[in-house]
Amino acid sequence: MRHPFSGKAxxxxxxxxxAVMAAYSFLLFFIFGFSLYISIVxxxxxxxxxxxLGMAFWYIVQYLTPRxxxxxGPIFNLIAAVLASVSMASYGSYSLAKAINxxxxxxxxLAETLPWRIFIGALVMAVIVMIxxxxxxxRDLQEKEQEELELQGLLKQSELDMLKFQINPHFxxxxxxxxxxxxxxxxxxAREMVIKLSDFxxxxxxxxxxxxxxxxxxxxxxxxxxDIEKVRFGERLKLTxxxxxxxxxxxxxxxxxxxxxxxxxxxxVYEQLEGVTIHTNCHCRDxxxxxxxxNNYDSEAIPQKxxxxxxxxxxxxxxxxxxxxxxxxxxxxxxxxxxxxxxxQKLNS
Amino acid sequence: MTKVLIVxxxxxxxxxxxxxxxxxxxxxxxxxxxxGFEGVKVIHEEKPDLVFLDIQMPKxxxxxxxxxxxxxPVIVFSTAYDEFAIKAFENNAVDYLLKPYxxxxxxxxxxxxxxxxxxxxxxxxxxxNLVDEHRNATDELDRIVIRLGSKIVILDLDTIDYFExxxxxxxxxxxxxxxxxxxxxKFLESALPKDKFxxxxxxxxxxxxxxxxxxxxxxxxxxxxxxxxxxxPVSRKGYQALKEGLGF
Lengths: 349, 248
Fold this sequence. Notes:
Chain A has helices at residues 8-31, 36-63, 72-100, 104-164, 169-185, 187-205, 215-233, 258-271, 309-322, and strands at 212-214, 237-243, 251-253, 276-285, 288-296, 328-332, 336-343. A five-stranded mixed sheet of chain A has the order 2-4-5-7-6. Helices cover 64% and strands 13% of the residues of chain A. In chain B, helix 4 crosses helix 6 (120-137). Chains A and B meet through helix 5, helix 7 and helix 8 of A and helix 1 and strand 7 of B.
């Protein structure tokens, strides 16, 4: 940890000491009536070592931190260190002052005041140490808060990564099976599908992908996905779009639409015999992006298990990114199932 | 000539079965179906010897189809990915192909199928074991499929009042209708959601929310009065189960 009295603070620290020394000299000069020279020299000789010690005590504070469960040891050590160092410094100052002065009344005064000087020095040092602890605990607190923030960010990121896109193994293996079949009957189409599948995986698996991208890019990616599904399901899967061109540059979390299409296909293609039409609508209102995906479905059907995870993931993901809940709404009537997304254009983070 | 039926909802998946089948001159594809309903119908009408059966299909899954077949042909399953199914297959002799599969793997499935064709009785046993095993591997039952002549009915569990054992069959009472299904009570008891259905008697399973009240009948037996007005017997053991389940 950086010393708190460094840079500008160091100048402040010594300025404070200069003020203390001035006051000290003033006291000796006016109250005790020593000469100006003696007053100033005494003040410097006695205070400068304490000022230096004060600087040094920061490092001791680093290693002696009383904790609620363990404080007697550190406090005792600290008191001992303060007393020992201040006594030695004061005695050094005393010897030096004695050596360079000859005034008998001053020498007398010097000898008399030594215990007091040690006592006052220790008090000053105690104040400095307290200030250090105050600064240190404040800094620890800030650091802890910072760490917590970072940790939360990391947690959010990993949660988002989890929710982003989990490729359905069904999709992978069924697509590969379609390709395997096409290699026998229509090799050209097989190659086309391999390329589409690769493009789709590349754009969705990359770690370097931005969390947000434009709806135009997202739709391009979804087209790859839906093209592949169309090869699998043929006539049973029909797609229609209606787009406001002005929305093109608005952003969405990437792969947010994929689970919706997957659901629509699952409900539509797996629960009805005649197939499904999926309609995608995109428009902007009040600067926000509104996306709705509608599929026809059989409301009478008793669906097979395993529904709802995709939708839940999308809800959680949008909430994590934008900090707003209820961005996903569902509408259904007898024939149609619609999922509506409201995608804000300002990040709330 | 071995009559082959292909049941898969994806055309390309059916195509590859046909392509792989070409070198096997004594196998003939008599029909292709793209969902379980058609599959059940064609199996009854055309009686194929061998069926390539996909698991995940519209309306009826491959497993639900098997539940509806009294005399199942030799089955070769295929699936892209299904943890539960693969778990069930591991302990079972019924063959399965994991998509995509090679001609070699397909050929070995054909070879095994040929052995089974000569021993249909044993295969029937294996198929019914597989259905049970798959049921155990998956979660609780959420719907019941029944064949009514040429019609297939899918019953939502919430509409069922009670089950009654009748010889080899179980009668299912749902919305003033009675359906028969070839299934064992023990199987139903373990597969139905425990919080919704209770076995109240050796021959009866009742829907908990249909029970109106329970009255003593004799020293050791009771009667459950259902909301529809029907009374079904409750044994001492069944009474205990009800007590635990309903907490009275």
